[in-house]
């Protein structure tokens, strides 16, 4: 039913109002996002194509979006170089990644 | 998946920076466990526990790992906290007991080391102050001293005078009074004597080993004999004859005449007739022969005659030394020519003594020497002979 309206991109919104538009395919690496956007589950996010994270601030979400792109870009490659993660972000990013099941 | 999961990447980064980790927020223990396992010090873990109390009680395995790492004999004690949240206190108890054990062991070790050191000190030689030792006699030649202290004020080693000439800056003896002048003069005289000596141990130049230092004894003797004055004639009569050569001829004839008379009279007379010619004194090898002759002369007249005749028969074979008074007596006519020859031979005083010792008639001795004449023994006889 919402399938035709499904856009190619999804919007990720942080708790402090930052919005990140990423490829739906890339964002679906995260199990949480994939389930929330699944039309079968019938969540509101799946209809709007917009997911809001109340626990993740803009800085960490930016890094998460970066990871989505990085992962999508290197999906078919071997020996991928590590993504750069600043040490001050690592704990929060770990928490977000754990939350997003990425 | 080609790219690693974001969670894994984050854990990797957290482990890399685990040193600065002071809290884990509101993480569940299971999520953050890989990171906490990499915490290296108990203090840091305790701080993380204080900041994030939710992990207390679940991190027993981390504490046990710390205890196993830090406490050697934890199994013998095997403490377990009543409250599982208080693993840090258990760790602290272990730590404290360990510190006590270490201190006790250190004390034991120190005591044993002190014992060793003390024992070693009993075998060590000490450096003693020189003043605490008894005095050694300062005088090596043991001059009279008072228990090691020399009686005279400053004896001991006298500084030896320099063996060679030394150039020093002037004299240090100050000429203030007469005594100092004397001292200086003495010193300078000493220096002058020292100046003449060589620096060698013998005070002489070194001489090569085989060098000739002395003339050979034979050479010395030869020179001495050469330097001696020519033989002197001790005979008085001969001296008279030597001085007045001309008188000799007639006297000889006279004597011959006497001789014949004496021959008619006795052998002893004839012998005495010979003696003026025989009184030559000197030193030569012929002395022995002449001495022998003298001894033979003591024999009767006929024997002498035969000897003389034998000698005359072979003049060349007869050495000059053998020429004797007999020869001259027999050849009375050739007295002038024969005189130099007898001069060479010289009956020594020794021969005369032998003649004296020899048993025989007195005129025989008179023949030998003028000494006999001096004694005047034959004085009574002589006028008769002559």
TrEMBL record, chain A:
The keyword Nucleus applies. One of its GO terms (cellular component) is nucleus. Its main location: nucleus. Residues 9-73 form the SKP1 component POZ domain. Keywords: Nucleus. InterPro entries: ELC1 (IPR039948), SKP1-like (IPR001232), SKP1/BTB/POZ_sf (IPR011333), Skp1_comp_POZ (IPR016073). Gene3D superfamilies: Potassium Channel Kv1.1, Chain A (3.30.710.10). GO terms for biological process: ubiquitin-dependent protein catabolic process. It comes from the Eukaryota. Pfam families: Skp1_POZ (PF03931). It is found in: Nucleus. Belongs to the SKP1 family. Essential component of the SCF (SKP1-CUL1-F-box protein) E3 ubiquitin ligase complexes, which mediate the ubiquitination and subsequent proteasomal degradation of target proteins. Controls sulfur metabolite repression, probably by mediating the inactivation or degradation of the metR transcription factor. This is Elongin-C. It comes from Coleophoma cylindrospora.
From TrEMBL, chain B:
Residues 305-344 have a biased composition (Low complexity). GO terms for biological process: transcription elongation by RNA polymerase II. InterPro entries: Elongin-A_domain, RNA_pol_II_trans_fac_SIII_A. Residues 284-295 have a biased composition (Acidic residues). Residues 139-163, 262-386 are annotated as: Disordered. One of its GO terms (cellular component) is elongin complex. This is RNA polymerase II transcription factor SIII subunit A. It comes from Coleophoma cylindrospora.
């Amino acid at each position: 039913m919402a399938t035709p309206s499904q856009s190619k991109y999804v919007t990720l919104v942080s708790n402090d109002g930052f919005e990140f538009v990423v490829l739906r395919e890339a964002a679906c690496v995260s199990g949480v996002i994939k389930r929330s956007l699944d039309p079968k589950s019938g969540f509101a996010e799946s209809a709007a194509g917009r997911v809001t994270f109340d626990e993740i601030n803009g800085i960490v979400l930016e890094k998460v979006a970066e990871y989505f792109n990085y992962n999508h870009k290197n999906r078919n490659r071997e020996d991928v170089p590590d993504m750069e993660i600043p040490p001050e972000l690592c704990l929060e990013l770990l928490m977000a990644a754990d939350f997003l099941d990425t | 998946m080609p790219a690693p999961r974001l969670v894994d990447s984050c854990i990797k980064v957290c482990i890399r920076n685990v040193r600065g980790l002071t809290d884990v927020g509101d993480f569940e223990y299971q999520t953050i466990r890989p990171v906490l396992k990499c915490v290296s010090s108990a203090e840091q873990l305790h701080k993380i526990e204080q900041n994030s109390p939710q992990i207390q009680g679940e991190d027993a395995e981390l504490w046990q790992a710390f205890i196993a790492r830090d406490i050697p004999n934890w199994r013998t004690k095997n403490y377990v906290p009543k409250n599982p949240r208080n693993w840090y206190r258990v760790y602290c108890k272990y730590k404290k007991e360990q510190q006590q054990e270490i201190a006790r062991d250190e004390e034991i070790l120190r005591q044993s080391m002190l014992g060793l050191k003390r024992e070693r000190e009993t075998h060590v030689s000490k450096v003693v102050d020189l003043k605490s030792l008894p005095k050694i006699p300062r005088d090596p030649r043991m001059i009279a001293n008072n228990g090691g202290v020399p009686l005279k004020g400053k004896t001991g080693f006298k500084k030896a005078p320099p063996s060679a000439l030394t150039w020093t800056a002037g004299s240090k003896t100050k000429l203030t009074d007469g005594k100092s002048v004397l001292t200086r003069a003495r010193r300078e005289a000493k220096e002058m004597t020292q100046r003449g000596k060589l620096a060698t141990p013998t005070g002489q130049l070194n001489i090569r080993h085989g060098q000739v230092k002395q003339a050979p004894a034979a050479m010395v003797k030869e020179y001495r004999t050469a330097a001696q004055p020519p033989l002197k004639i001790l005979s008085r009569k001969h001296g008279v004859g030597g001085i007045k050569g001309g008188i000799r001829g007639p006297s000889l004839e006279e004597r011959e005449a006497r001789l014949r008379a004496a021959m008619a009279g006795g052998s002893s007379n004839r012998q005495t007739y010979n003696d003026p010619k025989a009184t030559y004194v000197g030193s030569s090898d012929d002395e022995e022969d002449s001495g022998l002759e003298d001894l033979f002369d003591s024999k009767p007249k006929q024997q002498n005659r035969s000897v003389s005749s034998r000698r005359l028969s072979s003049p060349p074979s007869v050495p000059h030394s053998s020429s004797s008074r007999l020869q001259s007596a027999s050849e009375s006519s050739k007295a002038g020519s024969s005189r130099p020859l007898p001069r060479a031979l010289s009956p020594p005083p020794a021969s005369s003594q032998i003649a004296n010792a020899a048993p025989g008639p007195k005129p025989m001795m008179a023949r030998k020497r003028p000494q006999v004449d001096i004694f005047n023994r034959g004085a009574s006889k002589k006028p008769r002979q002559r």
